[in-house]
Design a protein that fits this description.
Chain lengths: 585, 291
């Protein structure tokens, strides 16, 4: 042993590197096929030509964060063996009606290419895409191996499209329809699943409002013994739920229908005992119109619950407290603010393992009454749940001191989304801006990836963000800031920034143009109702040919103002399917 | 007699200006709240006790934003409607353009729906979730329309539909479908909700209301029964009234409890001077009377 041995091993390494070019591609591909993360794969592909090729031949799943950043032909050329595609389309603010209806992000052109190049496509997951019934039918008949369809926040289709999927996709394992703008023409689509069809593992139609054919559903659930996720819509009653559960006690994720039917004592007891055999359940949602008196039926099923979504059940604090006492393993909790601060205190007391909390407003527009949650509830949770790392919190008042306490208790935040619902509202105790609150967040939470700010904010908030939020990838800003300097701080300081969305802020051309080089390393920038002009946008488009700069004008606005600007990097060039209201510069 | 009533400025001359909607009265009040709390401990405690956000934004305290007409009267939460003028003051080039606002037809006095409901896409809640909440509220109301809340023209967009309930029972007076009714007290546009199902008598309800509105955070003397009777028997500063099915305002206590519960749409704690004749609509007034 000693230095001579070391020298020998070094020599052998350099020998190997000379032999690396004859290292079999198949082996490298096999090794790389074990890589799942698309970011790892991107890194791998940059190592050298061999690795680039091995990676592209071994990749089976492609994730495209912006459907306009690349064309389907380019994707198909680079990755010949894709079996699963995830595509995202419209800018996130389209969820809040800020993007015109016919903006684009239509899936059809992609499907046509996929049908030719990926006939063995198995999975398609879409977010904020436009998809028509014709496209769904095309999908259903073009891919014989098709297994999983997930549509989140999409629009343009109706239940007829779902009928086509049910009819033709013989190997379907997953049908996940979530929060879409769907034209609900009735529940008969469920009857379109063939009699012999039994492969479904995931069925989520909570999105739909109309009555479904319960008979067909009951038979379907009875046949599909591998079903692990079942999320019903509101039309399914408690009694029907009980019947379904009898055939599917193995469910891991359950979304109930309406939880408020009048039950006899016997029916209640039946429900309770059926639920008690669902020992695999780790996710529970639905619970529309949940009546407090029926909630105890859930208790026996809650012992292994890790995700409880009560965001459609307007519970009061006491009801929530009692329920949570039975959910010691809870990691994720979504609630309505009807539970108030008292309910959140119960969260802090009962859920020590909590990692994610989302509190939605039940009544966002009613300013006439005292209701909802305050900073006190958030603080209470932070004391009891030190593992909290994801929060979405809608409230009507907040203080800098409370936020400082919260992040002191929970320094591991990766996602901090605070929405003080009245735009530009200061710390209600001190009357000061909320700068120090978000300053505390970015200083303390070094792992922060996503931040949404609100309340009265000066440029100081953005100075803090630029200086401290070194891992920040997504930033959402509304009704904040004082001058261009704020936005410049963010663009200059947040090296990992990928998505920046801004509305109603006094940032203008100087701010926009300060990020010239930055935008190519980002996925996208959105600015609406700011002080950006058409000239500023044209300048940006001219200077940065690899960026697509799109402006959406509003009726009756000033000629020179760029009301809504969407900037994104693309190797596909300017898009040709933009509607007239969208100007591509 | 002072008891809980002082807290609402009953016996305090200075405080009576607090309930004015006059802007010039607002600023001094703001300063009172934020700086000179020691001079008016009862009021600041009351305000905090109500849990209202009464701080005003638009820059450092003391800076005169009162010049803007949009600050409204005391107790109103700063909303987006106030914002455009603030922003345009902050930036020199006229502020943001293009954010759609509905016609600003909302009056300041009545505390009816304000800025948050007039801004497109704010608060940032997915359209799907909004529609879901609206549908839930509709289903619970049955065919009833709005239950008597003063409302202005609404944007047609369903997203901005004002919800009258928090998922529980509404203020609708359908048989057996009662629950929470809104309660407002004169001078403070932000009200509360009281659950009528939780009470079986006027005394019990009045006590709850006294607790909600008239009890100081640090009240030393707590004489529940006497205080309750103050609201009901006319000996107090304030008078308890309600709006019935037909839209008429009546004195609470005249009809049997059950009958009251089935016909009440909302409650209002009024000053006797305003309650004369009970033909009053709910607007805020300037109090000229001394106590």
């Amino acid at each position: 042993m000693g230095s001579s041995e070391l020298k020998r091993s070094k020599d052998s390494v350099s020998d190997e590197s000379a032999r690396r070019s004859s290292f079999p591609d198949e082996v490298l591909e096999r090794v790389l096929s074990l890589l799942k993360s698309h970011r790892d794969r991107s890194s791998v592909s940059l190592v050298c030509k061999d690795w680039y090729n091995a990676e592209r031949w071994s990749r089976t799943h492609v994730f495209i964060g912006n459907c306009y950043s690349v064309t389907p032909e380019i994707v198909a050329r680079r990755f010949p063996r894709i079996r699963s595609v995830t595509l995202k389309g419209k800018p996130r603010f389209s969820d809040f009606n800020l993007v015109p209806e016919n903006w684009g992000a239509d899936i059809h052109a992609w499907l046509v290419v996929f049908a030719a190049k990926y006939p063995f496509l198995e999975e398609l997951r879409l977010k904020r895409m436009a998809i028509s019934d014709e496209s769904l039918e095309f999908l259903a008949i073009s891919f014989p191996n098709f297994k999983a369809l997930s549509l989140l926040s999409c629009d343009g289709f109706s239940t007829n499209g779902l009928a086509a999927i049910a009819t033709h996709c013989k190997n379907l394992t997953e049908l996940d329809i979530q929060e879409n703008g769907i034209d609900d023409k009735g529940g008969s689509w469920l009857s379109c699943f063939p009699e012999r069809f039994m492969s479904l593992e995931v069925l989520n139609f909570a999105n739909l409002t109309s009555d479904i054919n319960f008979d067909a559903l009951e038979k379907l659930v009875g046949r599909c013994k591998s079903m692990r996720v079942l999320k019903l819509n509101r039309s399914v009653s408690l009694e029907q739920l009980q019947r379904l559960l009898v055939s599917a006690p193995q469910l891991a994720e359950l979304g109930t229908g309406s939880f408020s039917q009048e039950l006899t004592i016997r029916e209640y007891e039946e429900l309770e005992s059926t639920l008690s055999i669902c020992k695999n359940m780790h996710t529970l949602s639905g619970l529309w119109d949940a009546k407090g008196i029926y909630l105890p039926a859930l208790y026996p099923a809650c012992s292994h619950l890790t995700f409880l979504n009560l965001s459609y059940a307007a519970l009061q604090s006491v009801e929530l407290a009692k329920l949570l006492a039975h959910c010691p393993r809870l990691k994720r909790l979504w609630v309505l603010d009807t539970v108030e601060d008292k309910g959140l205190e119960a969260v802090g007391l009962n859920c020590p393992l909590l990692e994610e909390l989302r509190v939605f407003p039940a009544d966002p527009f009613d300013d006439e009454i005292v209701h909802g949650v305050t900073e006190a509830g958030f603080v209470a949770v932070s004391f009891g749940c030190p593992r909290l790392h994801y929060v979405l919190y809608f409230c009507r008042q907040m203080t800098n001191a409370a936020v400082a306490t919260i992040v002191q208790n929970c320094p591991d935040f990766t996602h901090f989304r605070l929405c003080i619902m009245n735009p530009g509202q200061p710390d209600y105790l001190t009357n000061e801006p909320m700068d120090e609150a978000f300053g505390a967040v970015v200083k303390t939470c070094t792992k922060l990836q996503r931040l949404s700010v609100s309340g009265l904010l000066t440029d100081l908030t953005f100075e803090y963000i630029g200086r401290y939020a070194k891992n920040l990838e997504t930033l959402s800003v509304a009704f904040a800031g004082r001058s261009d300097w704020g936005m410049q701080c963010v663009l200059g300081g947040c090296s990992k920034l990928r998505k920046l969305e801004i509305r109603d802020c006094p940032f203008g051309n100087a701010a926009l143009l300060s990020g010239l080089e930055k935008y190519e390393s980002m996925r996208s920038l959105w600015m609406s109702a700011c002080n950006v002009t058409m000239n500023g946008c044209r300048l940006l488009a001219r200077e940065m040919p690899r960026l697509n700069v799109e402006v959406m004008k509003e009726d009756g606005s000033d000629e020179s103002q760029a009301d809504k600007v969407y900037v994104y990097r693309s190797i596909a060039g300017p898009r040709r399917d933009a509607p007239p209201s969208v100007l591509t510069l | 007699m002072e008891g809980g009533l002082v807290l609402l400025g009953g016996g305090n001359g200075d405080a009576s200006s607090r309930v004015s909607t006059d802007e010039s009265a607002v600023l001094p009040k703001v300063e009172v709240v934020s700086e000179a709390c020691s001079s008016y401990p009862a009021e600041s405690e009351l305000e905090l006790g109500l849990g209202l956000s009464l701080g005003w934004g638009g820059g450092a305290t003391g800076k005169s934003k009162g010049a803007n007409s949009s600050w409204g009267e005391c107790g109103r939460i700063l909303t987006a409607k106030d914002f455009p003028s603030v922003v345009s003051q902050r930036t020199n080039n006229g502020g943001p353009s293009g954010t759609k606002r509905a016609a600003e037809s909302v009056s300041h006095e009545s505390g009816s729906p304000t800025g948050a409901s007039q801004v497109v896409g704010w608060p940032p809640i997915r359209a799907y979730r909004m529609n879901s909440l609206v549908n839930q509220a509709k289903a619970q109301r049955g065919d009833e329309g709005d239950s008597g809340i003063v409302e202005k023209d609404k944007p047609k967009d369903a997203l901005k539909k004002k919800l009258n309930c928090n998922g529980k029972q509404t203020t609708v007076n359908e048989k057996g479908h009662l629950g929470f009714v809104k309660v407002n007290i004169d001078g403070i546009p932000i009200g509360r909700k009281v659950d009528l199902n939780a009470h079986s008598s006027y005394e019990s309800m009045a006590h709850a209301l006294e607790d909600m509105f008239l009890r100081s955070a640090n009240s030393v003397e707590k004489e529940p029964l006497t205080m309750a009777s103050k609201l009901l028997d006319g000996s107090s500063e304030f008078v308890l009234t309600y709006e019935d099915k037909e839209g008429d305002w009546m004195l609470v206590g005249d009809v049997p409890w059950r009958m009251f519960v089935s016909s009440v749409r909302r409650l209002r704690i009024m000053r006797p001077s305003e309650a004369n004749g009970l033909g009053m609509k709910c607007t805020s007034k300037t109090y000229s009377e001394n106590q």
